[in-house]
Design brief:
single chain; alpha+beta; Arc Repressor Mutant, subunit A; 3-stranded antiparallel beta sheet; 4 helices; globular
């Protein structure tokens, strides 16, 4: 696979990779679905009914979640 193809992940793969990165265990795929429905999750790419996540965009979204200490 090319580098670009490796950068696009399925929803289950994204849930596993992001969850492991953030909390040490995979997120449930439903978590990403709920975040998308609430408009607060990482950006998705839709092609028809298929959903994919561009990993660099997911990391950018994660960085945008940073908050200053109170």
């Amino acid at each position: 696979m090319t580098e670009l193809q490796d950068a696009y992940l399925s929803r289950p793969a994204t849930a596993a990779k992001l969850g492991t990165l953030v909390r040490g265990k995979p997120y449930n795929e439903r978590t990403l679905i709920n975040w998308e429905l609430d408009g607060k999750g990482p950006p998705v790419t839709r092609v028809g009914r298929d959903v994919t996540y561009y990993w660099p965009s997911v990391l950018q979204w994660l960085r945008s979640q940073e908050k200053s200490a109170a």
